[in-house]
Every structure is written in C-alpha cells, then in structure tokens.
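Example record

The entry below shows one chain as it appears in the dataset: sequence first, then structure tokens.
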Amino acid sequence: MLRTPDESADRSPEVDERLLRAAADDPAALGELYDRHAKLVYGVALAILGSPDEAQDVSQEVFLTVSEPTAYDPARGTVAAFLTTMARSRAIDRLRRRGRSVRLLKTWHEATPIAPAPPSPHERVAAQECAERVRSALAGLSAADREILELAYWKGLSQSEIAADLEAPLGTVKSRCRRALVSLRGVLGDLTG
C-alpha cells in the first residue's frame, strides 16, 4: 500500500483502521502499522511479563495475528486499543503457562527421589574399618550371646520370640541380650559418638 507523505504523518484512527484492513494483503501496510504501534504493544507486554525477551515474542505474535484478517470491530474501540488488548491477553496467557510450568516442575522435583551422593574414598575406607571392628567385636562374644543378637537385630525377632525359638526362659534371653550389648558398647563405644 503506497502512502502519501500526508498519510504517513497522519496518526488518526481512520488511518490505523485502513492499515489494519490492508495488513493481510500488503506487507507495507503491516510495516506502517508496526511502526505506529510496536512501542505500545511491547510496553504493555513488558509491563505484564517483566521479561524483554517474552515481551518481544508477544509483540511478534500480535503483529503476526494482524497480518491475517482479524475480528477488529471499530465500534468497540480504536486499533491501538485492539492491539493493546491482544498484547495484554497474550501476555497474561504466558504468565499462566509459566505458573503451570513452575507448579509442574515443583511437583516433579518433590516426587523425584534424590539419590545420595556416592561416598568419597575416605568415607568408604572409614566404613570398611568400622565394619571390621564390629565383626571383630561380635566374634569376641560367646556363641549364645551372639546368636541372641543375630536373632534380634538381623531377623527382627522380639525377645519373647527368641525365647520361644531357643526354648529358653525369657529372663535368660533378656540378661544375655543386655550382657552382649554392654560388651559391644565397651569395645565399640567410640563409634557411637
């Protein structure tokens, strides 16, 4: 669409309407419409989104939309108001999508178990030394005391179940368990803190 020098300087709503109608078929009309309203559209999007990159994306979407036949109705307001409303709507839609994305990421993060960091070489050596000390301390117990601790801690049996399993009085099981734990504490006390 060729413009006369008077028309390009004219900021009237009628010129905006004419440019909007021609924008679908005439890239020059779209360019003129862009020159006239890009700052306004960008400013609205930036105020809502707070991100220059997203505001530029919204501005581009708005002007791409008006490069096709639109549902603009002059009775409802000016072209500037129409473009501003489009920019506002698209910017708010982006905020909503951003909020959904953040919620989804937060939910995913909370649902994803965090794998423990692998032990360092120093931690592995320390764990091996500790395990060797515990095995040695257990080997130092009597066979009967060690059997009671194994049934209690490795098989998870209660003292009553151990007494029934060994066919021993409950009091004997309790005293052997206590004696074994006191013996282990004496040997391994520095490991417990």
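Notes for this example: The two ends are 86 Å apart (CA to CA). Confidence is low (pLDDT under 50) at residues 1-8.
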